[in-house]
Sequence to fold (254 residues):
Amino acid sequence: MITTAARHPRFAHGLAILAVMALWLGGSGASLRAADDAAPAIPDTLQQRIAACTACHGVHGEGSPDTGFFPRLAGKPAGYLARQLQDFKDGLRKYAPMEYTTRFLSPEYMQEIAQYFAAQQVPYSPSPVPRVSADVMKRGETLVTQGDPARQVPACSACHGSQLTGVQPDIPGLVGLPYDYLSSQLGSWRTKTRAMAAPDCMAEIANRLSDADISAVSAYLATRELPADMHAQAPGSIKPPLRCGVLEAHGSGA
Fold:
């Protein structure tokens, strides 16, 4: 991966244009040196190198609650974030900009990026939620906190933590995420544009939910009051009700 803008061909191309302009204007060698000296120094820092991430996900990975489709990265478990980068690289998750961004990232670099965003602590911002009835919101609360045994749908809290803030090191928090993002991701598991290592427990759950259930769950999670402590729960503090390939591979959640 290119680590400084100075090594990027577009950056070099820009310098070449400056040089040609100086010659065209009758500039001397001193003018060319002045143009080169005026070029901004690009720091070789992690913050600079993850500019492609922060352009969409926010300076601190706070997400874009107004649009809903660029999720929060800040404070999520590092293991989860690194796995998502790998999933985009491996084609398990389908989104062209992310697939391109991760194409040449090493596992070590993915871990570095994940650790950076996991350490960020910034406030959550409210996001737009469609108007839904009290019955819909009640259905969402039931699915999130109790599940639906008749459909073999476990409660979201059974995997994502009692306060829905996630579980270290691999399970993300759900509370506070935008409605549009939540509903689109559940839909992505149904359309096979998002997947995990087999057995894919989230694909199983998403396919047991109706369209109305997905809307209800997303609305409830997006409007649920945030707990005082938004940190993910400790490793091993939950026992997943379904077999999940990612958790089995990493020995977490048991």
Q: What stands out?
A: Residues 108 and 162 are 31 Å apart (CA to CA). The chain has 13 helices and no strands.
